[in-house]
C-alpha cells in the first residue's frame, strides 16, 4: 500500500492500524469513515508515531487518542 498518496482508502487503513496498535477498548466508536482525506497529513503523522514505537506509554496512547479525536469530522 502506497501511503504517500492521499486517499480515503489510505486514511481508513491508517486509522484501523492505529486502533489495532493502541488496542483501543473503544475502537468500535472510532469509525475510520469519520476521518476525511482533508486531514491526511495529520493522520499520517499520528500513524507514523503509533507505528514507529514498539511500546507506547499510557500518556502517549492518551495523546494519540486525543489527536485522533481532534481530527475526526464533527
* Major sheet characteristics: none
Tell me how many strands there are: 0
Proportion of beta-strand residues: under 5%
Principal-axis shape: globular
Report a brief summary of the structure.
This protein has 74 residues and is mainly α. The protein contains 3 helices and no strands.
Note down, in words, how this protein is organized.
This protein has 74 residues and is mostly helical. It has one domain (6-69). The protein is 55% helix and 0% strand. The chain has 3 helices and no strands. It has helices at residues 8-22, 40-51, 58-71. The longest helix has 15 residues, at 8-22. The radius of gyration is 11 Å and the shape is globular. The model has no long low-confidence stretch (mean pLDDT 86).
Amino acid at each position: 500500500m502506497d501511503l504517500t498518496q492521499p486517499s480515503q482508502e489510505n486514511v481508513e487503513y491508517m486509522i484501523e492500524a492505529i486502533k489495532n496498535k493502541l488496542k483501543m477498548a473503544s475502537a468500535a466508536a472510532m469509525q475510520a469513515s469519520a476521518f476525511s482525506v482533508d486531514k491526511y497529513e495529520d493522520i499520517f503523522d499520528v500513524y507514523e508515531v503509533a507505528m514507529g514505537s514498539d511500546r507506547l506509554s499510557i500518556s502517549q496512547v492518551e495523546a494519540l487518542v486525543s489527536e485522533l479525536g481532534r481530527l475526526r469530522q464533527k
